[in-house]
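Recall the central idea of this unit: under ordinary conditions, the amino acid sequence of a chain determines the structure it adopts. In this exercise we apply that idea directly, starting from the sequence alone.
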Amino acid sequence: MANDKEQNEKTIQSRYKEMDRDRQSMLERARDCAELTIPSLLPPESSDQDDPLPTPYQGLGARGVNNLASKLLLTLLPPNNTFFKLNVNNQALKQLENQEEGLKTKVEQKLSEIEQNVMQEVRSQTLRVDVFEVLKMLIVTGDALLYLPDEGGSEVFKLTQYVIHRNTMGEVLEIITKEQVDLFSLPESVQDEIIKKHELDDEMDEKDIREEEFDLYTRIALNNEGDKWEVVQEVDEIEIEDTKGTYDVGESPWIPLRWTAPTGEDYGRGLVEEYLGDFKTLESLTKALVEGSAVASRIVGLVNPNGVTRTKKLANADNGDFIEGREEDVSFLQIEKNNDYKIIYQKTQEIKERLKHAFLLMDAIRRDAERVTAQEIRMMAKELEDALGGAYSLLSVEFQLPLVKRLMDQMESQGKLPKLPDDTVEPQIVTGIEALGRGHDLDKLMQFMQALEPLGPKQIIPRLNVSDYMVRVATALGMDTSGLVKSEKQINKRREQSQKAETLKNIAPEIMKQMQQQQQQQQQGGANQQQGGGQ
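Accordingly, the structure predicted from this sequence is:
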């Protein structure tokens, strides 16, 4: 485990420096990717907020990253729908059905209310803003760390602000973050200890020490049993006792994310790195085009020194003036590089098309033609979305599910949600890769019905199980049909009731007629008895 005896004897700062050596090569690659897309996501080494950032010659990288991050954000955290569903396990579900009729529906309604409350918490915390930043980092640098503290809110850590260690299966064993803090933000006992330490070692004035910023290290490590996360903080090699704590596995406030999961590596790789060759080529070719265009745009006139045209008169002449001279004495400097620049331009267009497909830009979906059908655009868009299946799968496991569990744990501790039994109710992600799979099922169902249309309703309806079809469409849309679509048993019962009602309707006139006849006979019999008594 990450917190074995040897590591416990080290300070967190020394452990951070040790793990930092394994991160350097990853940082270099990530900075190369950021420089060609959005440099502010991972600035050059040793730069601060006052230093100018590199400016790419092309803007396709930034446009592609922002576009793809926006699409992922809409898929992973849809604004108007829940991205997860609370499911009750089958055993508990059977018990509910046996206890009381309709109890299952009531439980599902309550769980739906909880889902909406969680989504309201997502909107109230402005979590989407930080998640959008995280997604851009994942696309460019391959890694990001999302922190959701107990008191609410969120914080994003760049790759330069933390180190991580995973086992061979990719499971996180240890995380150490590094932040800059002022002395007055620390506990008073720690402040006093730091002041004493620096007064002795550096002979610094107390005022100078209080104006300094110090590195705050936070270590999150899995314990030897593998069931708890142990947390502790350290500043200036002084451990802060009040920060010691533990979290159950699955409820950690720190959510480490990566774009891909390379086997045996601690860090992920971004999408930009996979196309880094194209980005570098596009950057150099665009630079050549821009600089060449700047040179070609210069207007420089040449005058024959042996001719009769005078340069001064020509330069001072106003529009419409007449001066002495000959046309052949004057010419303009031209760069005969049009064919060369045309080749460069064509190459840049080829590279742009490849990158547009990779980053799901709409330009790549619409082909160059006079008429492009809506179905064609829809199918091409679907094909491009399917290319992100691997990213969706990893983000569902490492981002969406831990996010739901963490938010629910926060809300339960704050009294905003009731405590749910862990072994009975489990969240299930219903967007991302799940949505892609259901989308394919829905497409097949729609194509099936379109293929049957020429047969006509008279041929289709008698042979089609309508209830089953409706259930499959609802499943593809991610809907629960319980209580919505009638079962065959309910349909048969309703049919029997309708038949009885129809039969009763048909025989009702005859029954009424018989009742009227009986009433008339009774009335006539009573009248006869009265006449007999009178005689």
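DSSP finds 19 helices and twelve strands in the chain.
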